[in-house]
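=== RUN LOG ===
request id: a7f3
mode: sequence -> structure
chains: 1
length: 326
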Amino acid sequence: MSETIFDAKNLTVRFKTDQGVITAVDNVNIHLKKGQVLGLLGESGSGKSVTLRFILRILPQHKTEISGHVTVGNKDVLSLRGKALANYRGGEVAMIFQEPATAFDPVFTIGHQIAETVVRHKGVSRNDANIRALEMLELVKIPSAKSRLGNYPHEMSGGMRQRAMIALALSCSPKLLLADEPTTALDATVQIQVILLLRELQQELGMATIFVTHDVGVAAEISDQVVVMYGGRIVERGGASEVLKTPQHPYTNGLLSSTVHGVAPGSKIDAIPGMPPDLAAMPPGCAFGPRCKHAIAECTAAVPELELLTATHEIACTVKPKLKAI
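=== RESULT ===
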């Protein structure tokens, strides 16, 4: 049986704001084994990125209330402090950020920043760390990798910086890789190249990966499993092909209907009406209810819980069992 790398039970993240306490992630459960890739799919504000930032423990503590039980390997993520937390970040868990230009320090070279990370987490000599930095740039297929070690972040193109960000994230062989919309800031051609590179590296290195995206096509390309989030809660979960080919929740169905993948030029896209919910003023019952064309009165009575449709596919929907098909 594969080793469990990540396990979250009843994870809830609340933020203290001027409007009061808002719930950004609500009672989320995720289980991930070594080598698995989980796609977190949903619109902006659904709780995807907050979930990743909690896992990396980079949310502002004084403004955040967190409950639940979360482990990476055998470590209790909530209990990590001081040196143990510093070793955890970048060592056991690493993140590829959306915009590497802001993730890298502009005053140090790419090679220096990768080598410094290796020295800090692996305790090797500077020479060995420099060798590792070169190996990582070669691994992510940066041309003329040796000469690129001396480049500053601004001296690289967007696609090259993202490859360097991937090299940095993988340099200490993390158990869990987090990717937060890593291709959003890139043009379409470079996006495809980076997605294919990530998939190749994940298969080669075998680390567990959580990949955040709002793009259905990207989720289909890279994920083994898909979790769909809306208003901070999981509304659908299952195997990637199962969820993306036969979506069962009205929100997931709407996401797929509104995608441009495979749509003929000039065709009308069937967008989901309305806007994502205001987390400071959530509607009663199902958060998607106000935008759902299938909503009934019962949808406002209570927040639906996840229920199994098959052994591997579950949704949180009040109205779905009453419909023959969406």
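=== NOTES ===
The first strand starts at residue 4 and ends at 17.
Residues 188-205 form the longest helix (18 residues).
=== END ===
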